[in-house]
Amino acid sequence: MLLTLKKLIARLFFPVPFIFLLLAAGLGLWRSGLLSLRDRCPSLAGDAVIRIYDGTPGSLSSALSLQLWEKGDWSPSVLVSYPGGEYQGLWWAPDGEKYLLAFRQGGEPRLDLYLREQSVCRDLTACFAGFPAEGTEYQFLQWSEDGGALLLHYREAAGQSGYFWYDIASGEVSGVWEMGENG
């Protein structure tokens, strides 16, 4: 069967528009950040969503990035980037006004507490520096029922470990339970 000139041209050039369509779709997905979306964390009240990206959406950055999307226009209101950050988890407080981000930056663990209404971020790892000893790592366990305090686990470089409550309003540490080595 001989191909007509029209069919031959259609077979030769059909892939070109299709390839351009695929490239355009891929570019759109990349610019939107969907290709680098790591996690999506809605608040308990459903009035906000935090999107965590491996990289800054629409760029070639390798930074860990967060976008806070709030109810209303559902557009990103906050963008925070941590160069070289490795995401570990994000937890909303029961009141929906605070959230805690756990990540590693430069190989070091870090906890950041965000207060939505005040647009404030506290580097808790820096706040706890030296408590109970230098070189201590901290891990989030749970929020208090009212969202006013955090229960954290600590492990010193020497192997000692324990638990404590951190009051967000006062910055006070209470209820320290020392577990000894490997506790």
Largest sheet: 4 strands, antiparallel
Spatial ordering of strands, largest sheet: 1-2-3-4
pLDDT < 50 stretches: none
Following the backbone from N to C, one meets helices and strands in this order, namely HHEEEEEEEEHEEEE
Number of helices: 3
Question: What's the multimeric state?
Answer: single chain
Q: How far from one another are the termini?
A: 80 Å
Care to count the β-strands? 12
Structure characterization notes:
It is a single chain. With 183 residues, this protein is of the alpha+beta class. Helix content is 17%, strand content 47%. It contains three helices and twelve strands; from the N terminus they run ααββββββββαββββ. The strands form three sheets. It has a four-stranded antiparallel beta sheet with strand order 1-2-3-4, with no helix packed on it. A four-stranded antiparallel beta sheet has the order 5-6-7-8. A four-stranded antiparallel beta sheet has the order 9-10-11-12, with no helix packed on it. β5 and β6 form a beta hairpin. The radius of gyration is 24 Å and the shape is elongated.
